[in-house]
Amino acid sequence: MILTKRFFAEAGLIAGLSVVLGLALHVPVIRQFLAGEFAQEFIAGKTGPGIILITLAEAEDLFAGGKGAFVDARSRTDFSAGHIPAAKNLPFEEAQGEALKEFTAAIPPGKTFVIYCSGKDCPAGLTLAVLLRDLGLEEVRVLMGGWDEWIAAGLPAERGNDQE
Amino acid sequence: MIRNKHVLYAFRLIIGGLFIYAGVIKIADPLGFARDIQNYRILPPAACLFIALTLPWFEALSGAFLIVGIFKRTSAWLLSFLLAGFIVLVIITMARGLDVDCGCFGSFSRKADWRLILEDALMLYMSLQIAGQRRPLQ
C-alpha cells in the first residue's frame, strides 16, 4: 500500500486540500505577516504582565542614567561585531536552564533589564524576555527597534566579545 | 496484527476523533499554534506560520477521512507519520532541555514530556493497525 501511486495520489490530495483551505481561509493573516506587522506578535500571548516594550528614546534614557542592564540576544559573532556598550551577550539559543540562571544572578540588583536583538522583526528578544520574566525577574524591557535602530541613531557602540 | 473489525473501527473512531479535535481547536487559533511551534525553536517564523495554517487542516481532514472511510488506509499512514514525527520532535525537545507546551490541543496543551511520548506511541500503534491491513476484512 505504502509507496504506491495510489497512496501518493491520495496523500497529495489531502495535503493539497489542507494547504488550499489553510491559506485561503487566512488571507488577512498572511497579508499582515508579509507586511511585517506581527513578526513578534506570535508570542504576544505569552508576554503579558512584567514585560514592557520600550522605544529607542526610553532605552537611551536608561542607558544614559546607567540604570539599564542591556542584554544582547543575538549570536556571539553579531555581538562581537558591535553592541550597546556594557551589554551582556546571552545568545537566544544558549538561554536555557542553568546558564540562564547563572546569567541573571550575575546582573547587579536594582538594574532594569533591557533586552534587544537585531531589529524589530527578530523574535529572540521577546522570547528571551519571557524566559527571564518566568524566572521571576520584574520589569523586563524589550527594545523594539533592536540593534539596527540603536546603531542607525548614531548612539554609542562598542566592539569585541569581552563581557567583563 | 489485529483483524477484529470492531476493534479496528474503535481505533478509527479514537484516532480520527482525536485528530479532528486537535485540528479544529488549532484552526480556530492559528496564531496561538504558530507561537507554540515557534517555542520549539526549530523553524523560522514564516515556516511556523505556514505550518500553523495548514497542519491543523491536514490533521482534521485525515481524521475525518479515517472515520468516514474514504482514503482510510492512506489517512492512517499519514497520521502514523505525523505521530512518529511528533514523537521524534518531543524526544529532541527533551534532549535539548527545552520546557515547552506541546501545542497538541491548543490551550489545553500540556508539557512535552515522557507521558506525551507514551500517548503518541499508543496512538501510533492504533493507526498502524489500521494502516497495515492488507486484505479487506470479512
Per DSSP, what share of the residues of chain B sits in E-state strands of 2 or more residues?
under 5%
Biggest sheet strand line-up of chain A: 1-5-4-2-3
Can you give the helix content of chain B as a percent range?
over 70%
Give the helix/strand class of chain B.
Answer: mainly alpha
The total of beta strands of chain A comes to: 5
The major sheet of chain A is characterized as: 5 strands, parallel
User: Strand-and-helix sequence of chain A, N→C?
Assistant: HHEHEHEHEHEH
How does the overall form of chain B come out from the CA principal axes? globular
Low-confidence stretches of chain B: none
In terms of DSSP E residues, the strand content of chain A is 5-15%
Low-confidence stretches of chain A: none
Radius of gyration of chain B: 15 Å
Quick overview of this protein structure:
The complex is a heterodimer of chains A (164) and B (138). The model of chain A has no long low-confidence stretch (mean pLDDT 82).
Polypeptide structure, described:
The complex is a heterodimer of chains A (164) and B (138). By secondary structure, chain A is of the alpha/beta class. Chain A has helices at residues 5-24, 27-34, 56-64, 76-81, 97-105, 124-134, 146-152, and strands at 51-54, 68-72, 88-89, 112-116, 140-143. The longest helix of chain A is centred in the first third of the chain and has 20 residues, at 5-24. Chain A is elongated. Chain B has one domain (5-131). Chain B has 138 residues and is mainly α. In chain B, helix 1 crosses helix 5 and helix 2 packs across helix 3. The two termini of chain B are 15 Å apart. Classes of the chains: A alpha/beta (164), B mainly alpha (138). Chain A binds chain B through residues 1-2, 6-7, 10-11, 13-15, 17-19, 21-23, 25-26, 29-30, 33, 38-39, 41-46, 92-93, 96-97, 123, 127, and chain B through 27, 30-32, 34-35, 38-39, 41, 45-46, 48-49, 53-58, 61-62, 65, 71, 73-75, 77-78, 96-98, 131, 134.
